[in-house]
């Protein structure tokens, strides 16, 4: 590994140089984590402000969903692209490029005059976020071995988990104090700090690869996911769910998906290397990540509506309720990271984490407008423990099983499916809410395509709206139970492989040594 360090011979006689190298590695890790937290904050800080945002911009439930899904769609597709680029080009320069795209898009999103403009800039922001997630994860693999990474799993998982699920807490306070637009400016200081730290510390060798980008795969993956998400967002509003429009869009999405598989099996440098899925560890990690993605994105997105609409809370109070989930994520990730690093035993803990995921999902499916808040908080703590246990460890296991020349793709592949499942889930579940609210009878004021401000509704209407949203959101989590059960069985069947003790840079160097 090259982080502006001294040669091995010099370091053997110079403990001070070794300490300097270690300090630079830690600084580089902080810079990388700052970049990763940017992507997490982008997805979640606006969640508690979305009801306020949509009300101010005069938009409805469809726009509410697309502000989230436009960002998630481009994040998902770009994850695979950035991952492939990591196998070809300098990781440091790619990180700088991702940060640049993210910052410019965030500034423009904060200045958006309409919901349509906001959705467009959120899509561009997602491209940068995809790079931050994918390239940042590869940089961490460059810096620390899978076995040693357990020591930092608390930091890595805590940063991502707290950023993902603690974002609504911060976003709620920002919305109440400064206004929703300031949520988009929040990440700029993190970006500046990340660039400065990485520029001063990292000087990693570039991967040796042929610069062949699978543009056909890019187009087909984007088309397949985009058409499917568009269908679930507009069906039931622009045309009936069961109509020739729906048939045509679903057929097109499936056709693009089949074409993607055909192309990816034949191209020299596939965007999504399907061969990696034959590895029993990576395939089971993908299954677990699908459920994890649905839960991580759906819980903050729709629990914000539950707290604000069904329970009449303010954005900041809503975010505070989700704080329990964020805190448990950090604690679980920190404690288990140290335990796994010392013992090398990871499998029992990921099984426990998936058990928490399943039980918490079952609990959320029982929500009503009168469920005790202490009980709701307990369910959120269970989700947080699951995320803290599984988030970093699933990524480490995929990287631990990948060959050095496919590290970028192996890192991006589980993340791609995690983001894709979460994106589709938010889109599908958001469409279900919109359809059921629009079609509900006897709840005056809840049948139009707008996100209601319950504080402005008459008492009898407010109670009906609160009950309606609580019942719908509770029913949504019933759909997540089978995925959580699949994740539990997938983690139980993971091969119990030992974690490697060399970094990705060292592994690539070893492959270049003569026999």
UniProtKB/TrEMBL annotation:
TM segment ranges: 26-51, 63-82, 94-113, 119-140, 152-174, 180-201, 213-235, 241-263, 284-307, 319-337, 349-367, 373-394, 415-435, 476-494
Domain of life, per lineage: Bacteria
Domain Major facilitator superfamily (MFS) profile stretches: 28-498
Pfam families in alphabetical order: MFS_1
Location(s), subcellular: Cell membrane
Entry-linked Gene3D superfamilies: MFS general substrate transporter like domains, Multidrug resistance protein D
The keyword Cell membrane appears for this protein: no
Keywords, in A-Z order: Membrane, Transmembrane, Transmembrane helix, Transport
Membrane association type: Multi-pass membrane protein
Protein name, as recorded: MFS transporter
Organism of derivation: Rhodococcus chondri
């Amino acid at each position: 590994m090259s982080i502006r360090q001294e040669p091995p011979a010099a370091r053997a006689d110079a403990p001070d140089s070794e300490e300097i190298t270690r300090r630079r590695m830690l600084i580089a890790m902080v810079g990388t984590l700052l970049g990763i937290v940017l992507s997490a904050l982008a997805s979640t800080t606006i969640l508690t402000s979305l009801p306020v945002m949509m009300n101010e911009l005069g938009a409805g439930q469809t726009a509410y969903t697309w502000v989230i899904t436009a960002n998630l769609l481009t994040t998902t597709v770009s994850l695979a692209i950035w991952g492939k680029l990591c196998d070809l080009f300098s990781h440091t320069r790619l990180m700088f490029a991702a940060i640049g795209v993210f910052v410019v898009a965030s500034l423009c999103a904060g200045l958006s005059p309409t919901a349509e403009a906001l959705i467009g800039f959120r899509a561009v922001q997602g491209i940068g976020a995809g790079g931050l997630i994918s390239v940042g994860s590869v940089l961490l693999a460059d810096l620390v071995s899978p076995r040693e990474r357990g020591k930092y799993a608390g930091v890595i998982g805590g940063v991502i988990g707290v950023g993902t699920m603690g974002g609504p807490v911060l976003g709620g306070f920002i919305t109440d104090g400064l206004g929703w637009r300031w949520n988009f400016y929040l990440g700029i200081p993190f970006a500046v700090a990340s660039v400065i730290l990485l520029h001063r510390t990292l000087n990693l060798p570039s991967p040796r690869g042929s610069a062949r980008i699978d543009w056909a795969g890019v187009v087909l993956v984007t088309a397949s996911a985009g058409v499917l998400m568009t269908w679930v967002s507009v069906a039931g509003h622009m045309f009936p769910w069961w109509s020739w429009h729906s048939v045509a869009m679903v057929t097109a999405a499936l056709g693009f998906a089949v074409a993607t598989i055909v192309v990816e099996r034949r191209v020299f440098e596939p965007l999504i290397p399907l061969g990696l899925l034959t590895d029993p560890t990576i395939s089971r990690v993908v299954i677990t990540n699908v459920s994890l993605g649905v839960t991580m994105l759906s819980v903050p997105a729709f629990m914000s509506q539950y707290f604000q609409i069904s329970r009449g809370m303010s954005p900041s109070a809503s975010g505070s309720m989700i704080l329990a989930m964020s805190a448990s994520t950090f604690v679980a990730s920190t404690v288990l990271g140290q335990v796994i690093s010392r013992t090398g035993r990871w499998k029992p803990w990921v099984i426990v984490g998936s058990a928490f995921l399943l039980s918490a999902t079952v609990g959320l499916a029982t929500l009503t407008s009168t469920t005790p808040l202490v009980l709701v908080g307990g369910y959120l703590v269970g989700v947080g423990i699951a995320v803290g246990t599984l988030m970093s460890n699933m990524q480490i296991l995929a990287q631990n099983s990948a060959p050095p020349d496919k590290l970028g793709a192996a890192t991006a592949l589980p993340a791609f499916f995690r983001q894709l499942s979460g994106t589709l889930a938010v889109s599908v579940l958001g469409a279900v809410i919109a359809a059921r609210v629009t079609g509900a009878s006897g709840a005056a004021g809840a049948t139009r395509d707008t996100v209601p401000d319950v504080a402005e509704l008459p008492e009898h209407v407010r109670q009906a709206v609160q009950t309606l949203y609580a019942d719908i959101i509770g029913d949504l989590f019933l759909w997540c139970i089978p995925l959580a059960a699949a994740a539990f069985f997938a983690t139980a069947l993971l091969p119990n492989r030992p974690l490697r003790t060399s970094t990705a840079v060292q592994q690539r160097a070893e492959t270049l040594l003569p026999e």
